[in-house]
Each structure stands twice: as structure tokens, then as C-alpha cells.
Amino acid sequence: MKIIVCVKQVPDTSGKVAVNPDGTLNRASMQTITNPDDMNAVEAALKLKDATGCKVTVVTMGPPPAAGMLREALAMGADEAVLVSAREFGGSDTYATSQILAAAIDTIGVEKDDIVMCGRQAIDGDTAQVGPQIAEKLGLPQITYAADITKDGDTVTVKRMLEDGYMTIKTQTPCLITCIKELNEPRYMSIGGIYATYNKPLETFDYEKLKDHKLIDATTIGLKGSPTNIFKSFTPPQKGVGVMLEGDGKETCEKLAGILIDKHII
Amino acid sequence: MDFALTKEQELIRKLSAQFAETELEPLAAEIDDTHVFPMDSFKKMAALGFTGIGVPKEYGGVGGGSMDEVIAVEEFAKKCMASAATLSIHLITPHILTALGTEAQKKKYLPRLTKGGEVAAFALTEPGAGSDAAGVKTTAVYDADTNSYILNGTKCFITGGSRASVLIVFAMTAPEKGTRGISAFIVEKDFPGFSVGKIENKMGLRGSETAELIFEDCRVPAENVVGKLGQGFKIAMQALDSARIGTGAQGLGIAEGAIDLSVKYMNKRVQFGKPIAALQGLQWYIADMATKTEAAKWMVYHAAYLHDIGKPFSMEAAMCKLNAAENARFVTNLALQIHGGYGYMHDYPLERMYRDAKITEIYEGTSEIHKVVISRAILGK
Q1: What is the enclosing helix (H) or strand (E) of A119?
Q2: pTM of the model as a whole
Q3: So what's the ipTM on this one?
Q4: Which of A217, B37, B134, B377 could be a cystine partner for B315, CB 3.0 to 4.6 Å?
């Protein structure tokens, strides 16, 4: 049994978001983190590893520095990693990305007892599309918004957290699950894990490696194969400082009412 | 020549910083007030492998060396000096046992002190033996009938002493031989005749319990002698050489933490219609603080590097500790000054850091003792 976890390196939005003059994100000038929901997926996989001894493989598509993020997942306890990286893959939207990741996951191999895990969505795009699209392209049953996962033989039971309540679903492996932050608290790396991480296998899947896969051709990958393109991205201007009125007398209330009337709020 | 950390060390810094921010910083003010050793934090450190740094895997450690320890202690000290000291001083004992313990001692004690999450303490200081460590009065008398030593005496100012389950205790086995009559023993807290006395009420480092330890006919099996009989003083001095690098890392970290807070405060605090970061007088403070701290950093790193590559490092360890300690006081003082009245308030971390920084000039050898060590090394006397 193995678990393949998809992770994404995203800008650290707790710092300042930098935007290029053309509207795209200036990724080079920003700190990066592993997408938070993906950390929950890694933790879910590692918990299953703790319980069953299964293998955990982390996969990402991104530029070469994304290997650093994979090393961190290996230092948390994952067994091996795959970096999917090529110029041809650059500029992919969710459709093209899921196409490439599905090809990579299929190349790693999804067997009867395996699970693919993803975070629900990435904090840079917020689409929540890539996980479900990978499942579609690989023909796997998918369960999204997992807040609890149990596995018994080849049956996986997942409690989904929805806006208005919970839904419990059972399915058979192989399957794909997308994880949310309520699922668990991601563990730290460990010192021992850090010493081990650079001795664990990290393979790069470049264009050559994947180009003959049935899901990959120029019309389905990269900027050209992406049905959507980013028109513009920007940091919204900050709201100005509010006005504070002090006092509890009639005069203050009238002043407040006056301001609200002026702004056509009342 | 290469000043870069290894890729692994970069990750150790990242992990240590995350751990310090998430687990240690939220408790720093509380343990300073309650004066209680952070046992939960210590167990978390153990679970992640921090307490196993420098101890081989076969004995429950994680391997690694002095530089890795420095990084962890430095990052911890930025947020909580008491926790940094707890780790740094704990590690002295497993490192002594790794270097000098018998195979049986290593197998018995090291797994407990590394992944086992038990605290260790190093008991050398006595009421009459501070800087003059050779003035140890605690005695250990051999009892042939039971093949054990009977310890009598009192140790004081022992960091973590009240929480330790395993201690290395220095006692006179042959008082007539002076320093060559001191031996080192492994004492467990449950040995009959061992008890914890007063927990000191300190100016700073209050989240780390400093205890008096009392030995009244405390029976220690002969198999618990560390190294050879009469080698205790040498063992203590060698252990302190390494420990001084850790104390240097504490001083370095607390200075860096104080600079971080000062930079944030200077950019936020507005006086005379502008952030105080625009005032040249304070800009020069920051320039001095950062420059001296940069120098302290590389002295600490260099001593750790020498230790890790197996070169002599005694003088460099003394220099880095002396300098980092003086700098910690210098920097926390200016940082408090930058914070003005707020800095003096107990509700703000600078007040605690200022008190905590002072200990680095006193423990693991005072600044004056370090000058003795350094001048002897230079003058060859």
C-alpha cells in the first residue's frame, strides 16, 4: 500500500504579496511555504503510515526550488518524492496542471490498495479544482473536504465537512481524497528526519519522462494547453483608518447619525 | 573557506524557529512568572530529537554536532531564554556520557536522556566551590562491602536539578590529591540519600529551576563512576568547554531576539510625528547592536565549527561565550532603552530578556574566569 500526496509551494501570504507590472505574482521576491491544506494531506498520509507502515510519496509540480519543500515533507517522515518540473509545464492552469500531475501519478503507479491525497485548495489560486480533476483523469473515486479518514482493508471511510453539516462516505481503494485543515494538526519535521531527508530518493519527472504519456501533449499542458489565463492580479488597496466617535451623549449620537445619512447608509 | 550552513542545518534552523515561535514563545512570560520548569516543552523537544543532538542513534540520539546544537539553542533563545538554557544545559550530561561512558552506562542512561524525555543535570557547583571549582567539598567514600560509593555534601545553583532524573555529580574521592582527587558519578534521583533542597528565586531565567541538591549517605554503585577515578575535574573542565559554546549561543539568540523586537517597535512607535526608526540616535543604536551581534554570531559558529572538526576549541569557546554574554547584556540594555517606558514594563518581553541576559555573564564560568582561560591560552601560563 502507498499514499501519493500532492503538494504545492505557494507564496507566504502572511508576508507582503508582490505583483509584477504585468499583474502576475512576483514569486521570486516572496517567501514560500507549503500550501497549508496540503500539509494536512501530508499529515493524514503520515498518520496512515504510522498505523500501517505504508509508503508515502510526495509529488509536486513546480520550478526546481520546490525540491526544498519536498525535502521538508521527507523530513516530516515521507519516504520518497517526485518533482515534476519542465519549461513545457510552466503557465499551466488547473486543467493543464491536473493533466500533468495525473500523468505523473499514473507513472508512479496507482495500485489496488493505494490512496491519492491532496489539500482542498491552494491559498494562491483558491480554486479547489486540481484534486477533483486528477481523480477524473485517473478514473478514481474522489471524496473532497475530508475532516476524518479511516481505512479498513480496501474500504476508506471519510467524514466530509460541508457548510451545513457532515457527510460520511465509504469507498474502495484506489481513491483520491482532498483534505481540509480540520482533519489534523500537521507535525513538525524532526531533527532525525532532517538528517535523513537528503538521503531519501527525490526523482525529477521532466518533459522527456512524461511526454509519451497518453495525457500529455502540447494542447493539454503549459500555457498553450490551458483553457484559462490570468488576466490581472493585484493587491486591493487597504481600507483607510476608521473614524472614532467618543462619548455616549445625544450630541455624539446625532453626529453618528449625520455621518451615516451623508453616506446614504440610513 | 565556506561560511554557509549545510542544507540540513538550514532545515534545523527552520524547525527550531517554528518550534520556538509556536511552542516556546507563548509560554515564556508565564514560566517567568510562575518560576516553573517547562516540562511539557521539554518532552516535545525530546520527541522531535532536540535532546538527542550529539548522541549517536544507537543510544537513542539523532547524531549531529555542536553547530546543530548552537542553531537550536540560538533560535530558542530568541523567543524564550529559559527554554534555550534548559536544552543547552541538559545536553551537557548526555554528551559527557557519549564521550566517556562505559557501554553499559550508555545503554542504560542515554536512551532515557534523549528520546525518553528525561531531564539531566550537571552538579559541580557548591556553596564554597563556584569559580574555584576545585574547592569541591562533597565526598564519595568507597564501601567495599557493597562495591559502591557513599556521597555526602551539598550542591547549589544546579540548573534543572529539581527536575533531573539522571545527574552527573562531582565529588572528592581522594581529598589529599586536590583536583586529581575529584571523581564524577552518575546519580539517579531515586537513589536513597539524594534529595532536592531549595529552589532558588532568581533575577532572571526564572522558567528554569535552579536547585540545591543534598546528598546524605547517598549510595552510588561503583559501576556509575564516569571515566576513571580522579578524572572528575578534567571531565568537568572539558564538559564546560563544550557547554560554553551553548551559552554563547544563548547570548547570541537573546541579542538577536531583542534586535527583532526593537526593529518592529521602532517602525511602529510614532513620536514627534514620525516612526522613531527615523531618529538617527536610535538608528545608531540599532547599527551598534546589529554589528556587535554579527561578530558574536561568527565567534560562536567558529567555536562550534572547530569542535565539530575535532580541532582544539577551548580558547575559542571561552572567547565566544565571554563576548556573546557581554553583547547580550549590551544589546538587551539598548533594546530596553529603545522601548522606553514600555520596555521597563513587565508586560513586555524586553524586561524579561534584560534580566535573562545577565546570567550569561555568570554561569558556565563568569566573564572573569573566561578571561583567565583566554589569557592562559595566549600567554601559555
Answers
A1: strand A115-119
A2: 0.91
A3: 0.93
A4: B377
